Amino acid sequence: MTDTLQRKPVSQVANSDCFTEESLSKLKEIMYEMRAEAGNHLFWEGDAADKLYFLKRGQVKITKASDEGKSFILYVYNTGDLFGQVDPFQNSVHSFNAEVTENSIIGVIQQKDLEVLLWQHGDLAVEFMKWMGLMHRMTQTKFRDLMMFGKPGALCSTLIRLCNTYGKNHGSEIVITKKLTNSELADMIGATRESVNRMLGDLKRANIIAMENNYIVVKDLPYLRDICQCENCPVDMCRI
Amino acid sequence: MTDTLQRKPVSQVANSDCFTEESLSKLKEIMYEMRAEAGNHLFWEGDAADKLYFLKRGQVKITKASDEGKSFILYVYNTGDLFGQVDPFQNSVHSFNAEVTENSIIGVIQQKDLEVLLWQHGDLAVEFMKWMGLMHRMTQTKFRDLMMFGKPGALCSTLIRLCNTYGKNHGSEIVITKKLTNSELADMIGATRESVNRMLGDLKRANIIAMENNYIVVKDLPYLRDICQCENCPVDMCRI
DNA sequence: TTTGTGATGTGATTTTCATCACACTTCCTT
DNA sequence: AAGGAAGTGTGATGAAAATCACATCACAAA
């Protein structure tokens, strides 16, 4: 019932949790490992989209840049997350950029290999379908949150998602164990740094959040949930 | 190369085109048919999400209502489209409403039956995965278009998507063969009716679009594409 | 210690968009 | 033919958010 009980320890949360041990190890068998340094790009818009990526360790952001130089952060993936495009086009290309933001170890899966595996293993195919469905719903609910409740709603939704992804409970407070700049938050919600700064200031003054050595601490989650009409989706879905 | 060559005849475009004849008929075998009248709802937010729907004939809108009574139209599905939620939760519920907007004939697929089918038929599983990937990308690109380019960009993107979904070429012009009210367009882009009305007025005055007995006619597609930094995605992806 | 760099905080101003109010049109219906 | 409902068009006004312009702060590197 309460939000705090629902939250898993932060170390466990990853979207590859959708898979059983066996399925995950089948996937791991067809991966080849690569390392990528912070600052590099895994792929750019327009690159061929024929691979999946399993983030064994590190962080990758999926972004989109506009002509005017603005950047929009669509997803932030962390250790244990699986991501990438699968679609029915022969010469499919990426619509987004994948920016490596921490030194990472990545398992790469070729779409062709994945297809063979799914073709062979019905149980994996079913799990895979559910994983895809979950990722799609995550996108849809984020879309809704960022479109429907103004910039304050978008920010509150994002803070909640950050709690679900990086949150550690300290009594009734939740520490977002990940340093974030105002600019990063702005790019996640399609706002400016200045707007985010002012909104965070408002939330601090109203004692909804606080800063503890540069980490955001959420003191009043129900308030955040109220602003973006949060419906208490499963935490695995309500993520960054 | 040109946009007009890329567009298929409107009668052919449906997201179930992802499937081969055989796969589609396998899916059809596990459907049961139902009829739904315009104005009814296929499902509401909070209803159990354990079915897929194949729209044999008619139209269904996926919407979200805010507390203040505003409505946001996430998708509009038409004859030949397949839709619904698949996810890994045991008691999964819908986050959106499905509103039947034309009298429809719908094939309903139980998730359990689908799972068995995917488990048995590897080729179907692979096609299904690609269909899911396509739908997800459609959501992502729409998300980007509605977030990054202001309300005019959102409108232009939506007009392009409407061309790809309902467009008929008349020489260099494209007739959107579907009547749309300003309010509907507003709900598709998260704007007000008045804003849409003014923006459409601007586009008419600039000779970008025109009205022909209440249908929108696009006279200058490149202009629309420029406003929302359109990248000429596959038409199957760039839809409403 | 100084200097440079990236980040934060904040006022003033402008732009974008929503809201409110109302006239007008179209078309359906009884 | 009259009335009503739904839709369109448009001005005036206000609120939300972006933009611009600096001041300040934190911290790492020289």
UniProtKB/TrEMBL annotation, chains A, B:
Gene3D superfamilies: Jelly Rolls, Winged helix-like DNA-binding domain superfamily/Winged helix DNA-binding domain. PROSITE patterns: CNMP_BINDING_3, HTH_CRP_1, HTH_CRP_2. This is Crp/Fnr family transcriptional regulator. The keyword ATP-binding does not apply. Residues 149-222 form the HTH crp-type domain. It comes from the Bacteria. PANTHER family: CRP FAMILY TRANSCRIPTIONAL REGULATORY PROTEIN, HTH-TYPE TRANSCRIPTIONAL REGULATOR ARCR. One of its GO terms (cellular component) is cytosol. GO terms for molecular function: DNA binding; DNA-binding transcription factor activity. Residues 19-118 form the Cyclic nucleotide-binding domain. Keywords: Activator, DNA-binding, Transcription, Transcription regulation. InterPro entries: cNMP-bd_dom, cNMP-bd_dom_sf, Env_Response_Regulators, HTH_CRP, RmlC-like_jellyroll, Tscrpt_reg_HTH_Crp-type_CS, WH-like_DNA-bd_sf, WH_DNA-bd_sf. It holds the Pfam family HTH_Crp_2. The keyword Repressor does not apply.
